[in-house]
Amino acid sequence: MQMTASEAARYTCEIVFHSAANVPLADLNDLSSDPYIAATLIPNEPGTSGPDSKTPQSISYRTPTARRSLNPTFNARWIVAGIPTSGFVLSLSLRDEDPGDHDDKLGKAVIRFPDPHRDTGEGAQELNEGWDSGEREYKVHKRHGSLRTRLGTYVAKVVTRGRVGHRVRVFVSIRVLGPAPHVEGEDAGRVYTLGPHVFVRHFSPLATHLTSVKSFIANRLQLTGPVPAALRHRYVGFAPFVKAMFRARGIEGILLNRALHKQHRAIYKWDRNTIWGIVGEEDTEDQASKEAQHRTGDGTARSSRPDEAFARKFLDMAAYGTEGRIFTYVIMLDGEWRFTETGEEFAIQLLSKHTMHADVAVEIAYSGEFFVRRIHSSKSASSRPANGECSQAQEPDGNEHVDEAEGEADHPDPSSLPPSAYELVIDNDSGTYRPHKDLLPTLAAYLSRPENLGALGRVRTMDGFDERLKRWKEHRQEVKKRARGGDEAKGVVRQASVSSSSSSGSSSSRSDVEQRDAEEGARQDAETERRRLEERHEQEALEDDGQRAKENGDYHQAAREEEKDLAEVKD
């Protein structure tokens, strides 16, 4: 008798991209490259691909970029759950981050785990608890790279008399952490990213240059999966050109498709200012334990403890909802949440905001707009459902201000409040994908999971046509105008296109000097963000040391100094 997908053994695996060696040279000026690895994982089993499959064919991961190195060290961890005993195929694309439109392809490696050529012992062809590959070396085939990088490598090898190698290798390890979290129904039998919570902040000089804001930031935040199978929305072909655009068919469709890809690369621009990090990265061993323990001892249930660090990071990226901010977002099928601030002052006439965010993806999980606000102090966060879910159908009727703090001024130090003092208001206002309003409770339940935003006071989902929601948004727009001095004080609101402005310097209404100022502003904003993160990590480490010394009753001189430092910080 054949086992069902929910009955078959599945595991949680840790994939570590350790390093690479002899990376092809992409920059002849400094005889170096800015390499990173783009990985795609496909489970080694039937039924996970093809037109009739309702599960994602693959999931993806990107390491941070190693700057100016031909022998980079990444040590990037990717935790994947739902892996079958037959294992998976890992496709690795080694690339060079290019400040231009396209990153250079340096080579490719396709790896199977278990590896039929290396795992030849009895039972070694199947994954099981305790399975560990150890760090392994794999060849990268340069024929999949660009001709320019291959020629550059050979020229550099001659010029440097062999100091630049040409045998490209990547080093990867896989280990089974334990049974995968138990899931039922349509979600069973799927592979998904369990962690870590990767966050990325892109500082786009071009978008800053085209808008009337000081700095334009695009955000990525990895949610813990699986994304519910019901949250799967295809673009709506409301006009003939839409289908042509998504499929890149015909002259018009190809031009629109390329323009949107170009817009996406401009807004979500990877460069030296980009901040890539992991929520709670201070203790990687503790993180691995937390990711493996989203289940009880028998692997049948998820942890019920909300992840406060993740909720705080989300609030930080959303600026705690201050100044009436509203964001446009998409959640991809692999759980990556992408969002940027929206509003009249962000006067970039994108062909489609959500299509741009999704990078012209045919299918996504959900899309719309959201904002963050404080919960009124008279409304106890403990009154929400046990799982943190709060959908439109559960909202009380009556006074629209009964449980929200729109009338209150921004808190002078919003980060000092606990995540439970805030709520997320999120809708389905997206014309491109038109997510079903009947699935808003499913979206609320997913975002409210303890490992996602369960530490927030509430997750409120609402239909984009809800009249209350429209009034709330109008109120926030007025708050934003007052906070930022109004449209007249901020300057001219331009009707410009990212793609057209990036292709023609003469079409921009600002001078080259202003463009350089925007780039310098983006660099300074990124540096400020990095310093702020470092200071926060140092303070958290100091508090941990002091608290640990106090709990242990340690009267050692160093421990007393830690307690004293902690007291000074609090004062």
TrEMBL record:
Biased amino acid composition, Polar residues: 46-63, 378-394
Low complexity bias: start-end ranges: 497-510
A Pfam family: C2
Entry protein name: C2 domain-containing protein
Domain C2 intervals: 1-132
Composition bias, Basic and acidic residues: 287-297, 398-413, 511-571
InterPro entries the record matches: C2_dom, C2_domain_sf
Chain positions covered by the region annotation Disordered: 42-63, 112-133, 286-305, 378-429, 476-571
GO biological process entries: positive regulation of gene expression
Superkingdom as given in the UniProt entry: Eukaryota
